[in-house]
Amino acid sequence: MDKLRVLNEYFGHREFRSGQEELIDHIIDGGDVLGIMPTGAGKSLCYQVPAIMLNGVTIVISPLISLMKDQVSALVTAGVSAACINSSLLPEEYYEVMHRACRGEYKLIYVAPERLGTQEMERLVSSIKIAMVTIDEAHCVSQWGQDFRPSYLHIAEFIRSLPQRPIVSAFTATATDTVKEDIVRLLGLHEPFSLVTGFDRHNLYFSVLKPKNKYAELKKQLDGFGDKCGIVYCISRKSVEEICDKLNADGYSATRYHAGLADAERRANQEDFIYDRKRIMVATNAFGMGIDKSNVSFVIHYNMPKNIESYYQEAGRAGRDGSPAQCILLYGPMDVRTNNFMIEKSREENDDLSDEEKEIMLERDKQRLKDMTIYSTTTGCLREFMLRYFGDKAQSYCGNCSNCVNGFEDVDITVDSQKIVSCVFRIKQKGRYFGKSMVIDVLRGSENDRLISLGFDKLSTYGIMKDVPVQTIRAEIDYLASNGYLCCTDDEYPVIELTPLSAKILKERIPVQMKLPKKTPRSKRLTDEQISVNDLLFMKLKSLRSKLASEAKVPAYVVFSDAALRDMCRLLPVTHDEFLNVSGVGKRKAEQYSDEFCRLISAHLSSHPDKKKYD
Ligand code: ADP
Ligand code: MG
């Protein structure tokens, strides 16, 4: 069977996405590959399609049990014989799976890396032909990635121990050069064909908000999403607990996830979210790597994460099925300090590294945090910033992020700049340097004890910006610093210093303009592509899907993704053949589901005779 037919018959997709076809072709030709594609790009198909086509079995090494379970049930529903081998199996299940595996009944076997060295595995690989070994989430092999797993280091050895070297394919969403080199070297890939697809995710709307009251803003955002589901990421276990409790008390359907919970509760909560029993998952960054839930409509970060890699990966869990989704970051300046604190702490806790390595890691982490802070405060296009960070080309206006959409205006801050720089100058005359907060306090005429005891209330700049909001002064200082008119050090106690350019502001009185958000932003959001979709029918399809999913004991999205249901609303199929045209419907799924779905759609059409088919 050729690859397009496999794509169509098993997975129900009409065409390959960018990058998929090339990777598949190289695998079929017998070469090793390394696929680097962002979360949601469709890496699984890149090895599942060839696995079906190759003569022999494909072993997929995957880091998380939940991830394997979902992938295997999705494959089985699509009519592909697959199984997983991990510690979650009961002894009888394990025996049964092994028995069938040894008889070569599966095309794909998902294995946890810890299992590779076991005797049963040795027996298995000596009794069947292994055509390919696939390593999913391959960055786990690198200490420089965010999710290092020591057991990944044994994969190369496992591959070497096989009677015949199979094709090796590796996939990850992490693109930095160090991680890439580690993957090739530590997994022992042979001159792999590497492919990095663009990092852009067109369907994601990015926004950064700087609310005074984060919790109130969170509720406002959640209300705006109706009954759609999503993830709220918090920086610590404690804040996960707090936010989740508050949301529940306020009547939201929320559950929680962090590494401090007992295994059983973590698993139960995760399932509540995946099976749509709870709408909101409040979690630390411990939640996510195994989550392939495709209908996550929003990812809200209650705190700024520690770097852009983490942010893009976490935010990228929204909209995996290609539907419009939102990634919202609630930024507060305290987030910078908390992250700095956590970076320092993790250095102390990391005993595996030499002092020199620790210093390098620390430097790197601080630089990454700085980049994340710049993202959170930039006035430019957010998508452009991120794509450039990952080395992609990008336009300076994407039209689908909060900065582009809300529009910015040029504001003349010449006079404010003079006041600010002169305040730093006056403080310096007292023989001291201070941080942003002190400069702002002096400018706004604060009466705090420290300020008074230092005699700063006697400075000529005391209180000269009384009427300007703190946020504005802060933004202006940041702007002056990022343009070299001031300098903001980044040691333990960051202070603001003058630079050679400061004189241009004070003496030459050069005009300074900066982009500030308009006072009343046009709050326009990306219009859902669902406009043409019949909401009522969508609801009916959803409830049919839930019924079928719960009968089959699988998550709803394993039956059909939201995108597939939306396509049904668009195409309104009423026959088996028409049903096959729906994106996400393959031969097997059509056989299984076309009757019930077509019946529902015909019934809907006859009770709404005015509904025509959409093009
Ligand atoms: P990744 O592992 O890269 O994060 P997945 O493999 O989980 O992404 O795929 C994400 C989503 O994209 C899935 O819902 C999958 O069905 C969908 N998808 C993958 N390839 C295609 C394709 N060629 N056409 C349509 N949808 C696709
Ligand atoms: Mg994946």
From TrEMBL:
Residues 221-361 form the Helicase C-terminal domain. Keywords: ATP-binding, DNA damage, DNA recombination, DNA repair, DNA-binding, Helicase, Hydrolase, Isomerase, Metal-binding, Nucleotide-binding, Zinc. GO terms for molecular function: 3'-5' DNA helicase activity; ATP binding; DNA binding; four-way junction helicase activity; hydrolase activity; metal ion binding. InterPro entries: DEAD/DEAH_box_helicase_dom (IPR011545), DNA_helicase_ATP-dep_RecQ (IPR004589), DNA_helicase_ATP-dep_RecQ_bac (IPR006293), Helicase_ATP-bd (IPR014001), Helicase_C-like (IPR001650), HRDC-like_sf (IPR010997), HRDC_dom (IPR002121), HRDC_dom_sf (IPR044876). It is an enzyme of class 5 (isomerase). It catalyses: Couples ATP hydrolysis with the unwinding of duplex DNA by translocating in the 3'-5' direction. Residues 24-193 form the Helicase ATP-binding domain. GO terms for cellular component: bacterial nucleoid; cytoplasm; replisome. The keyword Methyltransferase does not apply. GO terms for biological process: DNA recombination; DNA repair; DNA replication; SOS response. Its EC number is 5.6.2.4. SMART domains: DEXDc, HELICc, HRDC, RQC. CDD domains: DEXHc_RecQ, SF2_C_RecQ. Residues 531-611 form the HRDC domain. Its cofactor is Zn(2+); Mg(2+). Belongs to the helicase family. RecQ subfamily. This is DNA helicase RecQ. The lineage of its organism: Bacteria, Bacillati, Bacillota, Clostridia, Eubacteriales.
